[in-house]
Amino acid sequence: MTELSKLITSVEGSATLAITALVKKLKAEGKDVLSFSAGEPDFPTPGFIKSAAIDAINNNFTYYTPNSGSPDLLKAIVAKLEKENGLSYTPQEILVSNGAKQSIYNVLMALCNPCDEVIYQAPYWVSYPEMVKLCQARSVILDAGPESGFKITPERLRSAISEKTKVFLFNSPSNPTGAVYTPEEVQALAEVLVNTDIITVSDEIYEKITFDGTEHYSIAKYPGMKEKTVVINGLSKAYSMTGWRVGYAAGPKAIIDAAANLQSHSTSNACSVSQKASVAALTGPQEEIEAMAHKFEERRNLVMKEISRIPDINCPKPGGAFYIFFDVSKYFGKSFNGTVVKNSADMCTYLLTEVNIGLVPGDAFGNDNCVRMSFACSDENITEGIRRLETGLAKLA
Ligand SMILES: Cc1ncc(COP(=O)(O)O)c(C=O)c1O
């Protein structure tokens, strides 16, 4: 057997996808499994967006577009960033990619040299450490547990900076915790960064899913930060368009040009039809989009109400996104029918096999005391899922 690339074989597979596959397998075997592992909205893509895609096909908008994105989509993104985030970009400062995942990858690859340091917090989105590995850069991870509301302080950030720091990777609202930094907290982090050469890559993919009237504040808006920030956003979460694969990066032209060059030799443009659908999404009526975000807030309230009766877990209230991330470590060391639960992976395997609920181990997000539950599902499933969770945990002794 040929030896495979050391770099590629050092990359972990996605834990989210692994648990989703196990859930599918159990379902195929006829088990009544409720999955709370998916990282995507359960709503259909709004009709006017689908119609725009159908029109695009019928109008033969089915050829390559410019590598960086079609002019009408770049224009729509520029207008969105101006109107919603108060950020002025030219179309040349935008790169449209196959999902925000590719946007982040392109930008990190464009920025990092081997041994450069990338600072980010744990819990983190699963792909960050693996992308940093692929860049041959080094992750500097700041732990932020439930006791700190899953947030880092400016002091923690300052103390992690070295002369090797190249990038600060920031994600608010967060996957997996749902933590949202307030504008003041974002500004306090920006103050640490603004007089450095560090580039902030700000992953704002959950921007539109915030609760309790909390305003999303892009770190690029802080005076002096736009020149050293790449804003990452996309259509997947806000518009329920995960399968369409459209994301974008907005930032200094030199970084965007380098990222675009990489993209031109790997995937080329994002799907032409999806780009037309994205123009419709960004420029069309936003009521349906706001209604989806509102529904997520109702579900957040429901899941918090239901989970509050379970003893010995610590579940901070998420301010955005559609996940709860809660500490189950008080149950570690306990067992049922001879199976000892020692960590988050054991806990998820136990809950899946014993009470048929699919959660994702916190281990995959850099916190082995916690598990993630997505509430992008029906109210009935949330209520029944928490009931099963309660039953499963109560059996552990
Ligand atoms: C924090 C975060 N960033 C980026 C992405 C990538 O989204 P997409 O590639 O679908 O645009 C996700 C998706 O799960 C995410 O949770």
Structure description:
The chain contains 13 helices and 14 strands. It is of the alpha/beta class and 397 residues long. The chain has two domains: 6-44 and 288-395, Alpha-Beta Complex (Aspartate Aminotransferase, domain 1), CATH 3.90.1150.10; 63-283, Aspartate Aminotransferase, domain 2, CATH 3.40.640. The protein has a seven-stranded mixed β-sheet with strand order 2-8-7-6-5-3-4, with helices on both faces. A three-stranded antiparallel β-sheet has the order 9-14-13. It has a two-stranded parallel sheet with strand order 1-12. The longest helix is centred in the C-terminal third of the chain and has 21 residues, at 287-307. The termini are far apart. Bound molecules: pyridoxal-5'-phosphate.
Question: Secondary-structure blueprint of this entry?
Answer:
Elements: H1 6-9, H2 15-28, E1 34-35, H3 47-58, H4 71-85, E2 94-97, H5 100-111, E3 117-122, H6 127-134, E4 138-143, H7 154-160, E5 165-171, H8 183-193, E6 199-203, E7 229-234, E8 247-250, H9 253-264, H10 272-283, H11 287-307, E9 323-327, E10 335-336, E11 339-340, H12 344-355, E12 357-358, E13 360-361, E14 370-374, H13 379-395
Parallel strand pairs: 1-12, 3-4, 3-5, 5-6, 6-7
Antiparallel strand pairs: 2-8, 7-8, 9-14, 10-11, 13-14
This protein binds pyridoxal-5'-phosphate (PLP).
Pyridoxal-5'-phosphate is lined by residues 39, 99-101, 125, 171, 175, 203, 205, 234, 236, 242, 247.
